[in-house]
Design a protein that fits this description.
This protein is an alpha/beta fold. Helix content is about 40%, strand content about 15%. Strand 10, helix 6 and strand 11 form a beta-alpha-beta unit. The longest helix has 19 residues. The protein is globular and about 70 Å long. It starts with a helix and ends in a 5-residue tail after the last helix.
């Protein structure tokens, strides 16, 4: 642990106490920590009494996780009162990767929040047990690395990676197999039509991607990727993820099916490049959306990987959602190449669009159901996150995949005690509230003109002509009343925090929709304005905007 890391850690612990109106260091209380070579980097143990706590960790990641576990089990009243946890705790996570993927695009929270706030958020995730940060440099809308907007994003991501490393996290550099700049040569571009066995077009295709089998295509993929990696030179990168679809892929005769042909050819070429540039970085081979656009892709991918030549894959990287079938050979434990898989749970986009536009979206039942059904398939997880509005879901995922807990309700209680300083009765009500918010999350967008849309509306459409129809509205009033009750029992220091306001606003937004036959009202503008402030979302694209007039009219250009 460097002196810089020590300073950051101790300041982060002090900040969590100060947020709860408690001075730190505590008078007459010993807070000590040390490291042990006998423990894995993310493992830890602690002994705590009324007079002090002693932490022993394998590394910086374990130190943050231990301090977070101790603080969450202690009791704060939010008004200066503090009762330390007394006892012994220990955790040695079985899964090597338990982190979060920051989808830093669309002018969402991860792209536009102030640097210090993002640093604090990384610290908070480390306290929750996150030992990995993944991010991605989206290049499709830049002409080149040198474009000023590109340079700003590169500097931003370099800082995120650097700070994550300081708080003990490993880093994953996300890449797409055949992604390209907007200036990619048209004659080399990938195809996306329904052809060569494909039953639907690959989604998320921006039509600037490159085909590795067209003349000069593979060379151009490698040239652009080398240029990108050079821009990140000196950035701590522990893993590189190579992605097949969304965006990405090519349906041409030589590439199809992409997952077993064009993708794996490109994976080999890229892995050779990365071995040259970053020889210590490990590779994640994604299987995202296999069998979605072309049948038999999973089996064809497995057959080819099993033939050999892909020993440099450290982990597969994919996810089987609750509704998604799992290939029989995977269910039986026969992973392609004998590799383990890292999960990519979706915690942001399910049920409601714009993502985060209505406030918090807790999904305890969905998250726990999938973990209990499929968790044994994975060696860890990097949930897909579009913003801070799903902070509760992050707490659930980090607890599940670090091995800290397999009970959603237990995680929610602990969250309520620490993040809101609630008493036990109010904490139980918060658990109930999260389940109510999950049951009322699903909604669809409708317009008077008829039909349902995903993310675009007629330019002339009035704000109050927009409807967001909640599919199961029966419990909206109960949720709103319960949130008001919790709010009245919450210490003043916690009522205005971001983590509570996104929950409270969700209940207010939903109740206002219910009162107005699911149409937006003038009152919704005030709620949306507060979410914009919390998200730093003044420029957020329509897919991640709160329900402001300006945001909803900000059509995403693809």
């Amino acid at each position: 642990m460097t002196d810089v890391q020590k300073t950051i850690f101790e300041a982060a612990v002090a900040r969590k106490f100060h947020e709860r109106q408690v001075a730190f260091p505590l008078s007459g209380f010993a807070f000590s920590y040390d490291f042990s070579a006998s423990l894995r980097e993310d493992a830890w143990r602690l002994e705590a009494s009324e007079k002090g706590v002693t932490i022993e960790a394998g590394g910086v990641a374990g130190l943050y996780a231990a301090a977070g576990a101790w603080m969450r089990r202690s009791r704060f009243d939010g008004e200066g009162g503090f009762q330390p946890f007394v006892g012994e705790l220990a955790l040695s996570p079985e899964n090597p990767i338990h982190g979060i993927y920051f989808a830093s695009h669309f002018h969402n929270y991860y792209e536009d929040a102030p640097r210090e706030e993002l640093e604090h958020y990384l610290e908070d995730l480390a306290f929750q047990g996150s030992n990995v940060l993944m991010a991605w440099y989206d290049m499709h809308h830049y002409e080149s690395v040198d474009q000023p907007e590109s340079q700003r994003m590169i500097a931003h991501l370099r800082h995120l990676y650097g700070y994550a490393s300081l708080v003990g996290m490993k880093t994953v550099f996300g890449t797409l197999s055949n992604e390209a700049f907007a200036s990619s040569p048209e004659e080399m571009r990938a195809e996306w039509q329904v052809q060569n066995g494909y039953t639907s077009r690959p989604t998320g295709h921006y039509h600037v991607e490159l085909c590795p089998n067209k003349e000069g295509g593979m060379e151009e993929i490698l040239r652009e990727r080398r240029e990108v990696m050079k821009a990140f030179e000196g950035t701590p990168i522990d893993y590189i993820s190579i992605w097949p679809y969304d965006q990405g892929g090519c349906t041409c005769e030589k590439c199809a099916p992409w997952g077993a042909n064009g993708y794996l050819d490109t994976f080999k070429a890229l892995s050779a490049l990365y071995a040259e540039i970053l020889p210590e970085a490990k590779l994640l081979c994604s299987t995202w959306y296999f069998d979605r656009f072309v049948p038999g892709e999973w089996q064809a991918f497995a057959d080819r990987v099993n033939q050999g030549g892909f020993e440099n894959i450290s982990y597969l990287f994919g996810y089987f959602a609750n509704e998604e079938p799992i290939p029989d050979f995977i269910r039986k434990g026969d992973m392609p190449g004998g590799k383990k898989m890292i999960a990519f749970p979706e915690i942001s986009m399910h049920g409601a669009h714009p993502w985060g536009g209505f406030g918090a979206n807790p999904m305890p039942e969905r998250m726990e159901k999938n973990f209990r059904r499929n968790g044994s398939l994975y060696a860890g997880a990097l949930p897909y996150s579009e913003g801070i509005y799903e902070d509760i879901n992050k707490a659930l995922m980090l607890a599940f995949y670090s091995g800290a807990s397999d009970s959603a309700d237990d995680v929610l209680r602990e969250y309520a005690f620490f993040e809101y300083c609630l008493a036990p009765d109010a904490a139980e009500d918060f658990v109930t509230l999260c389940h109510l918010l999950e049951s009322t999350l699903g909604r669809k967008t409708a317009y008077d003109a008829g039909g349902f849309v995903i993310d675009k509306a007629p330019v002339h459409l009035k704000y109050t002509d927009r409807r967001y129809i909640i599919r199961d509205p029966e419990k909206i009033e109960e949720a709103a009343a319960l949130a008001c009750s919790i709010d009245s029992r919450m210490p003043l220091s916690m009522r205005k925090t971001l983590r509570w306001r996104i929950v409270k606003l969700r209940t207010e937004i939903d109740l206002e929709l219910l009162k107005n036959d699911m149409y937006l009202s003038e009152k919704q503008k005030d709620y949306a304005a507060e979410l914009v402030t919390l998200y730093h979302g003044a420029e957020a694209w329509s897919s991640v905007t709160p329900l402001t007039e300006e945001g909803l009219r900000r059509v995403v250009v693809q």
